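request received
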Amino acid sequence: MLAFAILELLHRKPLSGYELKKRFGGSIVFFWKANHSQIYPQLRRMEEDGLVVSSRVTHQWRPTKRVYAITPKGEQMLRAWLVEKPKIQAVKDEMILKAFAFNLISADEAASQLTHHQKLHEQRLDVYLKTRRQLEQRHRDLAETTDPIVFWNAIALEHCISFERMYIEWCKWALARQNEFLSRTAASANAKKAEGSASDNRMTGLGSAEP
Amino acid sequence: MLAFAILELLHRKPLSGYELKKRFGGSIVFFWKANHSQIYPQLRRMEEDGLVVSSRVTHQWRPTKRVYAITPKGEQMLRAWLVEKPKIQAVKDEMILKAFAFNLISADEAASQLTHHQKLHEQRLDVYLKTRRQLEQRHRDLAETTDPIVFWNAIALEHCISFERMYIEWCKWALARQNEFLSRTAASANAKKAEGSASDNRMTGLGSAEP
DNA sequence: TCTGCCATGTAACAAGTTACATGATTGA
DNA sequence: TCAATCATGTAACTTGTTACATGGCAGA
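response:
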């Protein structure tokens, strides 16, 4: 799939491996990421397959670079792939995987993980919002654009923004639920203590919310 | 990370490779997925490392299975990993990658992709909601539970639900935006036609919305 | 008899990560 | 002089996917 991601970018403009790498994972192409160690060999293979052609571009001040451009065959492949229905992807999120077993760590640690992750997603949201503002500045009103490239850029970007907002809200919600849980279990632990039985759940350590 | 996902499940209950495989990607553990061809060798390696121990369980009716249980060392590793702060993950979504270049296909095809994906996510949401209902049935009111395992289950599940809802909303939103875009560009194309200039953008083919 | 579930494995391949390696120019 | 940016590559390793392979039992 990296091949298609590359073709998408080269369709807009010929680029070097270095320039491709910079675009992936930042500046608009937030939803795809690749290392240079993947990109360079991939470009070679794509050239062998006739999907792209390269030419050396020499600058006086800078190292010579190899700039790749899409071929008609490459464009054909790209279009064929675009109309294929993608399968739904399996979600794989390390943070959620951890949260699933947060009963094994202290409430403090769990809360710390959640707030930390909330911050990370807030930071990324800021980057996205900044990008959207830049898009808006360059194209007056996004809701009025007639440029299909800009239009679909904005659609894809909006997905990234929605995802981050959702994630942040989930972190906040989980923290609120946790506080409720703690006051509930603290209450029942106290009740049990009064009865003389010990409670060994680890969801303690965080100040409980007001009753 | 597969190792940790396995440890999380084994901490709850000893399981065979086959049972682990069934749990990943379905029934609660929606946020992690693995093939049996990964799981079996992984379990072997984990046993070598002393993170799990296996025992053969023979049934009279069924094939003998190898059931794995977590060791104290495995539990220690798991806890250590749970408190590590995970890095924020790069988003990688094939559908969004495609949408980014939908200017290269017809509006009909683009709309078809979006509605198809919306359906897929609606189906998955249904599965999640069903699971939540089952959880609620077994544990009366989730908002009242004092079982930390059930509690964090519900927190993780809620993330999956939010994600699907967000995705569905994005699909709907994108389709609505596209309709607006089409009526806008149809209008400007007509205007240009009246001037005698040709327009070669491919965002046509779908009936435009009322002006 | 045939499908589906239980149960476990290997092998080949594709994709992704991390580290090693080089070397020029530009600005602080 | 030192860090950063430009620019490209390889190698070793880890992960993940797909296909191949086997075999018993249960129920339609």
